Amino acid sequence: MTRTTHRPEVLVSGASIAGPALAFWLNRHGYAVTVVEKAGALRSGGYPIDVRGTALDVVEKMGILPRLRDAHIDLRRLTFLHADGSEVASLHPHAVTGGATGRDLEIRRGDLTDALYTAVRDDVEFLFNDSVDTLDQSGRGVDVTFRGGDSRTFDMVFGADGMHSRTREMLFGPEEQFHRYLGHCFAVFTMRNALGLSHETVMWNTPGRAAALYAVGDDDEVHAFLNFARPDPPHDALGNPDAQRTLLAKVFADAGWEVPGILAALRDADDVFFDAVSQIRMPRWSSGRVALLGDAAHAPSFLTGQGTSLALIGAHNLAASLADRDHTAGFAAYERGTRDFVTRTQDRVGEGGGTLFPTTARALEQRNERLRGLSAR
What we know:
With 377 residues, this protein is α/β, with parallel strands linked by helices. The chain contains 13 helices and 18 strands. A hairpin with a 4-residue loop joins strand 9 and strand 10. Helix 1 packs parallel to helix 10 (307-321) and helix 10 (307-321) runs antiparallel to helix 11 (327-347). The mean pLDDT is 93.
């Protein structure tokens, strides 16, 4: 819609992927958008993410597809190893992921956030180093106070603040009620590329444990990844880096291959990201004039490879639903148009987990048989 009179003012919390994408489309539809981000700047670099299917159409419509194609990581080989480091199979990643060569994109997370920010920064107000402290809804809007001390009133507020969304907590209560733990924990960080890996991932598995090194290009650094099965989330370790390192060292104490070197690098790494592998499942994504999107609403977990695509598609759908409707009708249309796709994606989580992280000796041997069959083709 084109609004010549009053441009409704809206606030988006979170400047990762869903937030700037939503800001782009809402601006297109005549809204005055402010994005607040608690970090002091955009996070650059970061681990690789996938953009697939309908999400490619979204970034094409945004005009950023050529830039993302230039940033595409051409991952050429995925090698799986036995406990002793000997090879199970080595194949093209798409043989395992079912991706479409030449169409699907794999890029560093920071390359996507940079492209989204560049596409929208001239039309949208960004507030870095700040966050929402309180939300108070009334008939006329949402009164917001910021951590930095300011207070403003917006017509609508959107929570695009990730898996552990503070907006969701303020609106719907504690995360536990929506958090679905998938039986694994993981850590990811960067370390020296001691093996000279190039455009490839090497993954070591034993039942219930995995370690991988991911070389995005010919860099001096690789992304190290540790994953382990555990019946309950380690609540004492979440948010406690020392406890995380201790837990990982214990879980992988007797591991072979390059794992001792990975654990040594973990001790000194300053960019460790540790979390439970989980999903967010909610009966509804909005309340009054506030709506959630991306991981805040429906994190699918990295096992689906679809978190980024869902965030981009959801942002596009949410803004389109508000193009010619008020918040009540718009939010309802957004859920109607997006929820089925989200649920189907979340329900496919077992496929990724079974391939990458078998938890029993039998499941691991069956996985290895499948990989040897794919590789023989």
